[in-house]
Give the backbone structure.
Amino acid sequence: MLHDTLLSTLILTPGAVGLVVLLLLPRQADSAARWLGLLASLATLALAALAWSRFDPANPGFQLVEQRPWLPQVGISYSLGMDGIALVLVLLTALLQPLVFISSWISISQHVKGFIASMLLLETGVLGAFLATDLFLFYVFWELMLIPMYFIIGVWGGERRIYAAVKFVLFTLAGSLLMLVGILYLAYLHHAQFGVWSFAYGDMLRLNIPMGAGFWGSPQLLLFAAFALAFAIKVPVWPLHTWLPDAHVEAPTGGSIILAGILLKLGTFGLMRYNRPLFPEAWEAATPLFMVLAVVAIIYGALVAWAQKDIKKLVAYSSVSHMGFIILGLFAGTVASTQGALIQMINHGLSTGALFMLVGVIYDRRHTRLIEDFGGLAKVMPLYTFAFLLATLSSIGLPGLNGFVGEFLILTGAFAEHPLAVALAATGIVLGAIYMLSLVQRVFWNALVHEENRNLTDLTWREALAFAPLALFMVWIGVQPGTFLRLSEAAVRHLIGG
Amino acid sequence: MNMDLRADLLALLPELTLTAGALVVLLAGVGGGGRRHGGLAVTALASVGLTAIALKIAVDVSEAGRLFFSGMFVLDPFAVFFKVLFLLTAALAPLLSRDYLERHDYRPGEYHSLVLFATVGMMVMASGTNLASIYVGLELMALSTYVLAGYFRREVKSHEAASKYFVLGALSSGVLVYGLSLLFGELGSLDLAAMAAALGGAERTPTLLTGMALLACGFLFKVAAVPFHMWTPDVYEGAPTPITAFLSVGPKAAAFAIFLRVFLGGLEGLTPYWVWLVGGSAALTMIWGNLAALTQDNVKRMLAYSSIAHAGYALLGLLAGSELGVQSVLFYMLVYLVSNLGAFGFVILLESRGYAGETVADYAGLARRQPLAAFGMLVFLLSLGGIPPTAGFMGKLYVFAAAVNAGFVWLVVVAVVMSAVSLYYYLRIAMQMYLREGQEGEGAEVLAAPWTARAIGVCGVFVGIIGVYPAPFAAAARTTAALIGVTLP
């Protein structure tokens, strides 16, 4: 019974509990809201684990498929399915969500109900977008993420939160609405070629989308651009990244974790799921452009991160750099580089999520995030220092931790075809080590000059609890990457081959 | 002959019932000091209810596909769909107005009666198959709404709204009649079917095309499309808010009904000529309506520009012209009706600082004081902005799909870019409600107005259901669509 509706249950559980929290709980029931949120996200995690256990990694196609007619007249159906690519991202999402609730347990004290509800609705949107196999349904879930994130930044954010929230919404929406036109045009093409309307992903793969001549005369290039723009804004690909630092700096810690850990991945996931298989010729044609953009993002993001005075901003710009690696891996297009890109999506979620969480920890204590306000914390907060160092090493790709696996696969996979891009990208790794280690040095090792830092408390058990699973997975993926690579290998081979 | 008259009157039963209801409300309003707000609103509601029953009877007993009153009047599913929309509007209007009239101390009798008369006019418009009968309906609606716009006679702004509305409305009616007379001169008939037949062999003379263009301008004025929209912001701002709500949905939908029937039914042969006129206007409407709304601080003016923009989206369906196109306009009208009336319901609830003083800043911190009200308003705003899973998104989906399918991709691109812009001003209100702190004692309180709250509740249920499960509503719009015109591809 549950097998038939497992994915629906997984997607709808957080959102349904979110609505209950929002509409039915009394106004002051903060504690109940926190517990309900945590339980809902843990239930979602359990369901995701159940889906994992029922997943057959040898099968490259969609599994646990569900399909119901929704708007039959225009060929829209409610259809879900999970392949290896979606599975790993679903697992990441389900893992991060409870950790966000644990780490925000104290720091979110205003409008707790709204925060919990927004987060849960957001999770429903994310899971739905990963699992939808109908383009229209995908779009619905995609847009569903927008409004909760707007509130998360706008209500619980920092000083310039309203500016950041509006900028986030306008950037995202401008891209996604053009994608909607693209989706409608695909459905129209299906109507023209097969005589019936359809928005189903499988049907779209059968379309013959003409390449035409020039850019404006080429349906395939235009469609590619409409989809790629929406995804590139989300990733964000340089030079569309300007919303990201604002959003991150103003968002509360939990919002930053979700934003960096999961929402950015929807951009690269979209490129993987839609752009590559639907518009293969346009993908070929756009590869040089995206290679250049990826390399620019890697180096530019690293240099700008190096220059930051605010720790959170530094981490935000490092995201731009890291997402550049993922783009490079995707467009290099070999099995190894694509697998590397996918595992790097997970790694970035873990390490950057952890870094944002840890930045939040000292911000809660000191209400500042400026590097110059710290120094010598290693003596005061040893456990915290250890955690931060672990996340840093994971982020810069130390062998034995997860980041190394992803970067290695991407670079080796891409080298044969794109040696120059790989060489330039490799300098990004060096730069990454420089700015992250200098950050660690300035915050943790230098002399303790600020007296108010002398009495900072170390990680509490709750903060340690939120960090521990991330640390576990950083080591696990670093030592035993096969466990996770195996899940997506068949799907990625199918993607590259087909 | 006798049998014919009986059949004619039966087909007209809903209009007759509603006219009787309007007269009863008018007379009842005279006695008792004219201040029996609850009783009169209930009477108005009851006559709408009886009219709905009459409509059911008329549809059941009337012969399908038959024309009444010597080819002037039809009761096809297209007309019935719009009549149901108008009755829904007419049922929500007394609910929205009752508390408001009492608070501002105006007589409810004539007010409710005029709303019902306007509804009768709209119902005649939806059924008209001859430009003469359509025009009669149009004028009945227009004259009633001119008076309603100026109903709050102690308010200067209300006077201003009524005078502007009347002068510009009369001008547009003149343009319309002039175009109609030119068409009559060229085609020899005002009957839509006869016009369509005559068009087959008629030469495309300048007179004919001028007539068509003038008619199109008249209709564009009535749906408030750019560049014939100038009256809208002032009228919407100045009119009593429940009347603004009524104007923004009822007469607009009625204008779309005749626009569809005349241009796709009667003048379909001229499509290559009017498609550019209407297409250009649609693009301008979407662009200007949304851009102008960005800068408005008065919520009523903002919603006025937003309603202009929505007319632009709906015009896409008319342009598409296919069965899906007609269906999409009908469905869009339903979606827009419930979303917009819901949003206006909150404006009515929140008007606390005297008449028409509603600024965006009044919403500051509403979420803190009235979480449920803020959430409701948010849902309606998102629906107007077209964010899933609300009704507004589904409405846009059908309209855009129809336009893409008809080859108007560039217009759809304009539409989606402008939808992104529109979200900025809808979210401005959401931002005030959720992100800003209201000062103590500042900002509007939600007043205890149970009738208005009920109307909002009805709209909210529709917005939610259509957003999640639109299939039955879209299907209802579809069954009607195939039947309006002489020929549809």
User: Anything to note?
Assistant: Chain A touches chain B through 37 residues (CB under 8 Å). The mean pLDDT of chain A is 87. The longest helix of chain A spans residues 161-194. Chain A has 20 helices and two strands.
